[in-house]
Amino acid sequence: MTLISMLLALIIERLAVRSDAWQARPYCQAYLKLTAGSGLSKLAEHSLGRYLWLLLPGLVIALILHFVDSRLISLIVNTLVLLVAIGCWHYRQLYKQFLNAQERGDDEAAYLAMQQIRQDSASKVDDSNGLLLVWLNFRYYAAVVFWFLVLGAFGAVTYALLRHVQEQPQLKDERDDQVETVDALDESETAATDNYSSVNADNAEATPKDAVHYLLFWADWFPARLFGLGFALVGHFSRASNALLGYFLDFTADNQQVITDVAKAAEPIVDVPQQVSDDTSSMVQLAKRNMLFFLAFTAILTLSGWIS
C-alpha cells in the first residue's frame, strides 16, 4: 500500500497538479494562523511544547488513520497527504520560466527566475543553478518520500511543516498576513531562520527558537547521506563516494552542503559560463535518476516484504 500511494502521488503530481491547493504551503499557513489565534500559541512558545506543536498535525492524522482502520481510506489519505507534501508547483513554474528564457536567449529573465527560486527556498546555494535544483529535489521529493516510507503520513506531514516554517520568513513578503502570524508565534523566528546551519559543534544544543531548525537538521541528516549514496550509484561512483565518506559520520556539517558536494562529485560541473544551461540539465537528470533508483529499490523492498 505504501508503494502504491507513493507511485500514485508522484504520477498525479507530475501530470495533474496545477494549483496552490495541492501544495503544503496554504495548509501549513492555516495551521500557523490557527496557532496565533488560539491556545496553541502558548504551546508553540513553550521551550518543550514547541516540539509537540511541530509534531501535532502529523500526530492528528496518524491517530485518525489508526482509529478508522480502513485500508481503502488509508490508501486515499496517504496518497493525498504525500501529494500535498511533495507539491512544488510554485517552483516548477519558476523553473519553466527559466527554461523558456534560456530557449529564447533572455539571460536576464532566466537569472531573475532562478533568483526567485533561490530566495523563496531560503537556499544557500549560490554557485550553481543545477545544484540549487538538486537541493530542491531533495527537499520536496527525496526527503519527503523517505519519511513517508519510514513513518507514513505522520512523517510526510511533519517534514512538510518543518520545511515550510524554515522557508516561511523568506516568503512573508509574498503575503502580507504572514507577518502577523510570524510575530504572533515568535518575534525572533526570522533571525533564527538565518541560523539554520548553526546546528554545529559550536552550538549543538537547540533552544526554543531553534526547535524548527534542530528538528529539520536531524530530519535531513540520514536522508541526505542515503541519497548521497544514490548519487554515487547513479553517477560517478568513485568521486561521489569519496565525497560522501567525508560526511558519513559528520554530525555537524550542513546537510545542504552534503547534498551539493556529493552531487557535484557525481556529475562534475563544467565551469564555463556559456554552459550554465547544460549544468542545470545534467543536475536535474542526476536527481531524476536518483529518484528512479530509490523507487526501484522501494519496489524491491515491498516485494520482499520489508515494506507493507
How would you describe this structure in keywords?
mainly alpha; 15 helices
- Radius of gyration computed on alpha carbons: 19 Å
Low-confidence stretches: 170-208, 273-277
As a percent range, the share of strand residues is under 5%
Number of strands: 0
Give the rounded overall mean pLDDT. 84
Report, as a whole number of angstroms, the end-to-end distance: 6 Å
Gross geometry: globular
Per DSSP, the total helix count is: 15
What is the N-to-C succession of helices and strands? HHHHHHHHHHHHHHH
Biggest sheet: strands, sense, closure?
Answer: none
The helix-and-strand class reads mainly alpha
Helix content: over 70%
Write the layout of secondary structure elements.
Elements: H1 2-15, H2 25-36, H3 40-45, H4 49-68, H5 71-85, H6 89-103, H7 107-120, H8 129-151, H9 153-171, H10 177-185, H11 189-193, H12 211-234, H13 237-245, H14 255-266, H15 276-303
Describe the structure.
- The structure is a single chain.
- With 308 residues, the protein is mainly alpha-helical.
- Helix content is 73%, strand content 0%.
- It contains 15 helices and no strands.
- It has helices at 2-15, 25-36, 40-45, 49-68, 71-85, 89-103, 107-120, 129-151, 153-171, 177-185, 189-193, 211-234, 237-245, 255-266, 276-303.
- Helix 1 crosses helix 5 and helix 2 (25-36) crosses helix 10 (177-185).
- The termini are close together.
In short:
The chain has 308 residues and is mainly alpha-helical. It contains 15 helices and no strands.
